[in-house]
Design a protein that fits this description.
alpha+beta; Aminopeptidase; eleven-stranded mixed β-sheet; 15 strands; globular
Length: 373
């Protein structure tokens, strides 16, 4: 096998055809590993000089059989910098893109990691996150003596299997949906809401509408609930530029929402990416004016109903995070792991780790002193 490293935008665009061919062949691939999504991310965050492309392309007999969509991020700690090799993009699932018909996945992954090790002078740390349990990449890492000790549990992605469910068969009568149905009736009686589901080709103004709701929710949680940890991803300039690129004329971005009839007032929304009959949930928001109704449960119920009626979706992934509300809807989930491996052969890396550790000890001592003062 042969290896090529892509490290500029022209090179990235030059592998589009191979990438899109591979993504159709790779059964493990999620929306987060598609060319369209990752190229949109790079066009935005590639403007930051601290992000450098490091896409590893593996070929056999002059045909590309594997792509590792990586970047090297520079973390500046003023005294010393740390170069972290990880996946590009934002998302809940990350993976290499492989053609297992042209060789075993393990053999392709082995060549990719050989390339990573051959360029160990460029990175201080490997940080590969959101590795799902059922992927060839995680299996390779767990089998490897060097990488296995650096694999740690990260989070879980709960999901609802709706394939085969039938509205007429009474799926809503289960206890898991009882409270949601009561909330639905109450909201319907008091607001006369309507449920809609659209993609970004059908609705050009959807980004602005959901962005406004999410900012309202953040302000409400700050002022009324004391949730100062809450942030709105739509208030960050780079995030906004990235998501606008993703939304633009994209029928794979799906929004389900509740709104008042004869009005553009949005009550609650959920955003999904649609890929191979699966909805990947990645953002939610609600209007503070309707917080008392438990509107998100109503929205989930309406969304599941619609998906069952259409019969085109088999699963709804609720995204990363083990929040209680997710497990009130399902007992199924995918466990995610991460690889975090330091390059201790580099003096630069050892110095960085020593400084970070020293800073952590200093913070601990300061907190301890403050408690006893």
């Amino acid at each position: 096998m042969s290896i090529k490293i892509v490290n500029d935008t022209d090179g990235f665009l030059g592998i589009q055809e191979d990438w899109e061919r591979l993504q159709e062949l790779d059964e493990e691939l999620t929306y987060y590993s598609t060319f369209q999504y990752n190229y949109a991310w790079w066009l935005t965050f590639g403007q930051d000089p601290n992000n450098r492309l490091f896409i590893i392309c593996c070929s056999r007999d002059n045909e590309m059989v594997g792509i590792a969509p990586l970047v090297i991020r520079t973390v500046d700690k003023k005294i010393v910098k740390c170069h972290v090799l990880g996946f590009m993009g934002k998302g809940d699932y990350f993976n290499f893109i492989l053609n297992s018909q042209k060789g075993s996945p393990a053999a392709i992954i082995k060549e990719i990691f050989k390339a990573i090790e051959d360029h160990s002078d460029l990175w201080d740390k490997i940080e590969l996150t959101h590795l799902a349990t059922d992927t060839s990449l995680l299996h390779f890492l767990l089998r490897h003596d060097k990488y296995n000790p650096s694999i740690k549990y990260l989070t879980s992605c709960p999901s609802i299997q709706i394939g085969g469910l039938d509205i007429e068969a009474g799926w809503e009568t289960t206890g898991i949906n009882a409270k949601a149905r009561k909330k639905l009736r109450k909201l319907q009686q008091e607001t006369g809401y309507q449920f809609k589901m659209v993609d970004c080709r059908q609705s050009g103004d959807i980004y602005d509408r959901i962005s406004d709701v999410h900012k309202q929710e953040k302000a409400y949680l700050h002022e009324q609930r004391g949730r100062f940890d809450r942030r709105s991803l739509f208030e960050d300039r780079m995030n906004e530029e990235f998501y606008k690129r993703v939304f633009m004329n994209n029928d794979k971005v799906i929004a389900s929402f509740l709104e008042l009839q004869d009005s553009s007032v949005m009550i609650a929304y959920q955003l999904f990416f649609l890929h191979r009959g699966k909805l990947y949930g990645w953002n939610t928001g609600y209007s503070p004016d309707y917080a008392k109704y438990g509107v998100f449960d109503v929205l989930m119920l309406e969304t599941i109903r619609r998906m069952i009626e259409l019969g085109q979706v088999t699963d709804i992934d609720l995204g990363a995070g083990t929040y209680p509300w997710k497990f009130r809807w399902t007992n199924q989930f995918t466990v995610m792991y991460s690889l975090q491996l330091w390059n201790n052969d580099r003096l630069h890396t050892r110095l960085y780790r020593m400084l970070v550790k020293g800073k952590g000890i200093l913070k601990y001592l300061n907190r301890k002193a403050a408690l006893h003062s």
